[in-house]
UniProtKB/TrEMBL annotation:
<dbReference type="InterPro" id="IPR045851">
    <property type="entry name" value="AMP-bd_C_sf"/>
</dbReference>
<keyword id="KW-0547">Nucleotide-binding</keyword>
<dbReference type="InterPro" id="IPR020845">
    <property type="entry name" value="AMP-binding_CS"/>
</dbReference>
<dbReference type="Pfam" id="PF13193">
    <property type="entry name" value="AMP-binding_C"/>
</dbReference>
<dbReference type="GO" id="GO:0006637">
    <property type="term" value="P:acyl-CoA metabolic process"/>
</dbReference>
<dbReference type="InterPro" id="IPR000873">
    <property type="entry name" value="AMP-dep_synth/lig_dom"/>
</dbReference>
<dbReference type="GO" id="GO:0046872">
    <property type="term" value="F:metal ion binding"/>
</dbReference>
<dbReference type="InterPro" id="IPR025110">
    <property type="entry name" value="AMP-bd_C"/>
</dbReference>
<dbReference type="GO" id="GO:0006633">
    <property type="term" value="P:fatty acid biosynthetic process"/>
</dbReference>
<keyword id="KW-0460">Magnesium</keyword>
<dbReference type="Pfam" id="PF00501">
    <property type="entry name" value="AMP-binding"/>
</dbReference>
<keyword id="KW-0443">Lipid metabolism</keyword>
<comment type="similarity">
    <text>Belongs to the ATP-dependent AMP-binding enzyme family.</text>
</comment>
<keyword id="KW-0436">Ligase</keyword>
<dbReference type="GO" id="GO:0004321">
    <property type="term" value="F:fatty-acyl-CoA synthase activity"/>
</dbReference>
<keyword id="KW-0479">Metal-binding</keyword>
<protein>
    <recommendedName>
        <fullName>medium-chain acyl-CoA ligase</fullName>
        <ecNumber>6.2.1.2</ecNumber>
    </recommendedName>
</protein>
């Protein structure tokens, strides 16, 4: 924070340039995505009481539209070739800055950065981290998941506002002496991504499953990239069929990772590790991760429960300090000796974790507990389904039933919806247990998403439980 405030948002090169000097100056850094609207910016500035902000021409007007409602905001820095009234020129200030600077000798446990959570189940929370987040990347156990070398060139396709970018495009390569590749993509364009991977000697790539999914949907003639050796993915569930299709077309396996704004990377299918399709890998030390019940008791293998990170007797390095200015929510996630992530999963006998869904996403239909991910994975195997989101829908007999919101692929747009509903329901019955099939199906043009690109199931649930009326195609059974 500038003084006791925070700063936000920038683009990729500026983010890398700014983070280290900000860290050395003892200022708390608060990255923000370039996809934010004026409303998003207002919320972040007000709740953080940020005193300084750095952005580009794209978002400067949005900032100006809300600045009068943010009394803490004192300094606005613009990264641009143009002048803007009321803003300082970031580049000229850098050029004229004195080379002499006294660095703040920060300690490991002192605050360093705040990440806003993705906000899929409510307003984003401010997860505050200390310098241990950066230090953790130097641990040998943490470096195993990427196994970066000084000869590598890594391209992290995560938006700079999220913790994955800080880890994959800064801390991990910085620790290994690896070259970072940066491309100023205005938006995710699969053709540009593929061209870039062919043109430049990139050896490792890190991004969300949706990026690889978009590439696979384009039907490129060749995806055998000349220098690419390793691919990682995280941020949402990776579909097993996508993993297999990527491997067949590129010759490279997709390695899944799992983490949160509060934790950084906590599970991974590390490089060289056996891949179990559908699993997000094993825990990364120093985190002790267990499947726990609601009282913090450790559950046996193959039992559904909450993903918990042990915080007692010692809180591990790299885990967030707290939710800033919200001790109540900070206390709510403490569960016995564990931090309760709010995610549901199982662990097998070999220590592999299997994601089920957010606690709020679990559907309870006639006593059966159904995770949305498995149903969505089944639907994704059908050629008609471009994307889907599965939630619970109220039912007078069963309490809840499974409902699927589906966007169709172009070739199925003109198909009869009633017939297609029956076909998709039968498909899910065959692929998964029959009780998991969606008794209700609604075809939509798009799904509600957070600015991270994650589907907001919470918004769909609210609509289902009476806040909005939606027309549905329902199975009469």
């Amino acid at each position: 924070m500038v003084g006791q405030g925070t700063r936000a948002p920038s683009e990729s090169t500026q983010t890398v340039m700014e983070f280290l000097p900000v860290q050395k100056a003892g200022i708390i850094f608060m990255p923000g995505t370039t996809q934010m609207t004026a409303r998003d910016i207002l919320y972040r500035l007000q709740i953080s009481q940020a005193k300084g902000i750095v952005t580009t021409d794209t978002l400067a007007p949005e900032v100006d539209s809300v600045a009068s409602e943010c009394p803490s905001l004192k300094t606005k820095l613009l990264v641009s070739n143009h002048h803007r009234e009321g803003w300082l020129d970031f580049r000229s200030l850098i050029e004229s800055a004195s080379p002499d600077h006294t660095c703040i000798k920060s300690k490991t446990m002192e605050p360093m950065v705040i990440f806003f959570t993705s906000g899929t189940t409510g307003f984003p929370k401010m997860a505050k981290h200390n310098h241990g987040l950066a230090l953790r990347s130097s641990f040998p156990s943490c470096r195993k998941w990427l196994q970066l070398k000084s000869s590598d060139i890594i391209w992290c396709l995560s938006d700079t506002g999220w913790i994955l970018a800080a880890i994959g495009a800064l801390f991990e390569p910085w620790t290994a002496g690896t070259t970072i590749f940066i491309h100023h993509l205005p938006q995710f364009d699969p053709k540009v991504i593929v061209q870039t991977l062919f043109k430049y000697p990139i050896t490792q790539c890190l991004g969300a499953p949706s990026i690889y999914r978009m590439i696979l949907q384009q039907n490129f003639t060749s995806l055998r990239f000349p220098t690419l050796e390793h691919c990682c993915t995280g941020g949402e569930a990776l579909l097993p069929e996508e993993l297999e299709k990527w491997r067949k077309q590129t010759g490279i396996s997709l390695h899944e990772i799992y983490g949160q704004s509060e934790t950084g990377i906590m599970c991974a299918v590390s490089r060289g590790m056996k891949i179990k399709p559908g699993s997000m890998g094993k825990a990364i030390l120093p985190f002790d991760i267990q499947i726990i019940d609601n009282k913090g008791n450790i559950l046996p293998p193959n039992t559904e429960g909450n993903i918990g990170v042990r915080i007692k007797p010692t809180r591990p390095i790299g885990l967030f300090m707290c939710y800033e200015n919200d001790p109540e929510k900070t206390a709510q996630v403490e569960c016995g000796d564990f931090y309760n992530t709010g995610d549901r999963a199982t662990i097998d006998e070999e220590g592999y974790f299997w994601f089920i869904g957010r606690s709020d996403d679990i559907i309870n239909a006639s006593g059966y507990r159904i995770g949305p991910t498995e149903v969505e994975n089944a639907l994704a195997e059908h050629p008609a389904v471009a994307e889907s989101a599965v939630v619970g829908s109220p039912d007078p007999i069963r309490g809840e039933v499974v409902k699927a919101f589906i966007t169709l692929t172009p070739q199925f747009q003109s198909h009869d919806r009633n017939q297609l509903t029956k076909e998709l329901q039968q498909h899910v019955k065959v692929v998964t247990a029959p009780y998991k099939y969606p008794r209700k199906v609604e075809f939509v043009q798009e799904l509600p998403k957070s600015i991270t690109g994650k589907i907001k199931r919470s918004e769909l649930r609210k609509k289902e439980f009476g806040q909005m009326k939606l027309a549905v195609n329902s199975d009469p059974e």
